[in-house]
């Protein structure tokens, strides 16, 4: 069966080919046309389905993953959902090391989907033995027949978006896209999309989104990493305290940094103005788009594609809770 028959051998056939949706109201005061690539149309509600499936398929093809094997990963949640879903369907065991910034709902859902979850402190250096990177590495070493997905340092993360998300945007816009605005976490999305689109048209601008407290923008501009500048922030999935090799800084033109409050308010605005119920980083990318517009990055001929990485249901106890928003001082 193919996708177009409407009948599928498994949910895995529904990964990718997400829609591009024209933004109607939220960008009406900005110059240019704005389209959102809404990644929550993937089966497990985020762009991470693409990389999880690509990396697992690749390991199977290379004979690394055998039936009954264990998949190990560090994840802020989304990659975990995707890996748990694919593991269930393909018959693997899934062990995840997550940051304690991840919401309780996320952790509960990962467990419901059959994953074994280890919760680790977010605000320790990456090389600290308590960090989720180190915990995942240790589990991988100790577990026979395990595969470490290692999304931050896996070139296949970029390749998944280079092969799917990038070409989809090119086809959906009939090559008219002039700018993409993309959140940078592992950097897989922005690097794969950016590389593909620049190969089609080198004039396309690849605009990154980073968080205040993260190191990516400074590293992109100076090649330097200043650990003293790392500060905690609330947005899950955006920015980093280390430099992931899954980020190809050469294809990124520039970064804008966004704050926790602005991103949270922008996510709520997307729901209210567009009816798209997206996650926290979608608010971040929306806020960054407004900041880029304020810097005169766009004109009336601009065709701007914004990637919304995931669904809002994961944030009901955070940005979609008035109590949480008040506790952060984000609303009165
Ligand atoms: N948004 C969310 C909610 C995420 O979980 C992630 C991945 N950590 C991203 C955006 C960033 O995507 P990428 O890792 O491809 O840079």
TrEMBL record:
Domain of life, source organism: Bacteria
Keyword Oxidoreductase: no
InterPro entries recorded: Cys_Synth/Cystath_Beta-Synth, TrpB-like_PALP, TrpB-like_PALP_sf
Gene3D superfamilies reported for this sequence: 3.40.50.1100
UniProt cross-references to Pfam families, sorted A to Z: PALP
CDD domains, A to Z: CBS_like
Presence of the UniProt keyword Metal-binding in the record: no
Cofactor: pyridoxal 5'-phosphate
GO terms, biological process: cysteine metabolic process; serine family amino acid metabolic process; sulfur compound biosynthetic process
Segments forming domain Tryptophan synthase beta chain-like PALP: 12-310
UniProt keyword list: Pyridoxal phosphate
Family annotation (PANTHER family): CYSTATHIONINE BETA-SYNTHASE
Family that this chain belongs to: Belongs to the cysteine synthase/cystathionine beta-synthase family.
This protein's name: Cystathionine beta-synthase
Organism of derivation: Polaribacter irgensii 23-P
